[in-house]
Amino acid sequence: MSQQDKNQDPLPPKGDANDQKPSAENEGGPNRGTPPTPPPANRMGRGLMTWVFLIGLMIILFAFLSSGEKGKQIETWSSFLNTVSTPNKIVDNRVDIGPNRITARIAEGSIGYSDGELIYFNYHLGDSSDYIEKLEEKGVTYANIDTETKIWKQILFSFGPIILVILLIWFFISRSMRNAGGGPGGMLGNFGKSKHRLSNKDAIEVTFNDVAGIDEAKEEVTEIVEFLKNPKRFQRLGGRIPRGVLLVGPPGCGKTLLARAIAGEADVPFFSISGSDFVEMFVGVGASRVRDLFKQAKDNSPCIIFLDEIDAVGRRRGGGFTTGGHDEREQTLNAILVEMDGFNATDQIIVIAATNRSDVLDPALTRPGRFDRQVQVPLPDLFGRSQILEVHSKKVKTGPDVNLERLGRGTPMFSGADLAAVINEAAIIATLAHKDHVEMEDLEEARDKIRFGRARKSRRIEELERVATAYHEAGHTVVQALMEHADPVHKVTIIPRGQSLGATFSLPEKDRYGFGTRYLRDTLRVLCGGRIAEQRKTGEISSGASMDIQMATQYARSMVIEWGMSDKLGFVNYSGSDTSEMYIPEKDYSPETAHMIDNEVRRIIDTAFSETEKIVDEQWDKIVAVAEALLKFETLLAEEVDSLMQGQRLDKPTVAELLDAESAKNKSSDSGSAESRKDPDDEPAAGTLPSPA
What we know:
By secondary structure, this protein is α/β, with parallel strands linked by helices. 47% of the residues lie in helices and 10% in strands. The chain has helices at residues 24-27, 40-66, 77-85, 129-137, 147-179, 215-229, 231-235, 255-266, 285-299, 328-341, 363-366, 382-393, 404-409, 416-432, 440-452, 463-482, 517-538, 546-561, 591-618, 620-633, 638-645, 655-676, and strands at residues 3-5, 72-73, 94-97, 101-105, 118-122, 141-144, 197-199, 244-248, 270-274, 303-308, 349-355, 371-376, 489-493, 503-506, 635-637. The chain is elongated. The chain starts with a strand and ends in a 17-residue tail after the last helix.
């Protein structure tokens, strides 16, 4: 439909050879009963970490013991005793007696010492009773302390958290080193493990009956299902099933659904992963995940591996601008290429990939032997859209007036996902309107909402702008109705929808896979009709025709440089190559040819514009009739447009009358409910005044 507008439950992997018990013949060998020798690298790693931990602990102890507070030593006992016995000379008039040292701390304001300075006297190991007697005689209090206990307490509170952190780091590093060489992640732990989702045979409920609109694609992958079910049939004559199938098509056309249907029909495990899941911040993780994925697939064969959006890692190598460093994406791609080459004919593993950018994939990925086949999953045609609508409409309640074939005609270029959204939006619209089932008008409103946006009926538009919009859309509608080769008119509205103030909808009679010159010239006239009619009515031009101008320019330029529809330039293509690696547009023609192209594009549009001016002048009365009806009714269907162009009048209520009727209906229902709530016994007696309440 065209528009001219104004504006997993995973299965356990099979055990590795190192995890299995030895067989009977191995038990009888010369090494029977001998436990397996651990790898030398791991033993060396554990010993090295132990020595590192012990050396670090010794450094901490030495730093603590050597960094203790160094006070001032008093050489003679008499001098130390005189100092500590002087009133207010030491803190709390107290000394601490250890195994071979007596210490005290100088109080503030003492002469000859610094505030808080530590002084001590060393005595020989042995009995300290003589020193205690002297201190008691001088009235100095003392306290016996255990220096070793004090030191260990300080170590515990000062370095306990540090030691705990070192132990944790040592534990995790040693654990990672034990996994190195045996696990897929190595020292990265689980980073190297694949992030795939495994669906077993019971979890996949999708079959080919749930896939509609892509019959050719289903037929092409049927033999893959047959191979997974009966591989000996193909191996009897020496045939080999394709190792990989590449599903190519626009977004939303059912590539993922088709892959799940293949797994559901074949009744095999289904490994699914996105291309972006291979890439992480660590170098080498993507390749490790690829190897882990294919290893688990071989353990669960026959199975299907589905790589969604493979262009995330399968882009052409060496294209565009590179930083010159290590490319993680290319390493992941190399791992995929190597793993797909490692398949045997009896592995029974099918790799299915999906992308909508097959033009950017690396040639080594799409060569025979890897992705042998490319299955096109295109946008559905008219019959396919009807089938898809039937599949999705089974989930909702539809009314008797629903015509899915007509809806399919009105949804050209819609993908399967778009059609599913149309059915879902129609069900929501009908639910909000308190309907018992979905009607055809709900489906059409949902279609317009999906394609063009929600109708903004509450938007206030000035009358002059509203008149300009009505005549603009009337110009499109009348010219389109008069053009023989243009698509038929479906409806026209001046209700704002999306970014446009109005829109003219067409209903194609068939799907177009190519454009003829007659269709293109009539379409250009339709695009010009809105600007001409608006300018004739208002006397000025506005920006409302910007989309019309853009579409007309695209059509005219494609006619000249791509489709060879210009007599001056002939049967030549001037569009150049279209690849994502080109950062500068490519032009394979001279400046003189570029000048000719511009002149031809301008000539085609000017010719269509002048021809449309004549049509508008001749059919002005019909344009006025349609425009005035739009101002009155806001939306017109194709039958109503035909009646207006034949000079008939429309006999239907206006928008204002519908709103007034709805308001009156609500008031009458409210008053009726109020009357029904009245009680006859509550009527006031004669001569009494009514209550103010």
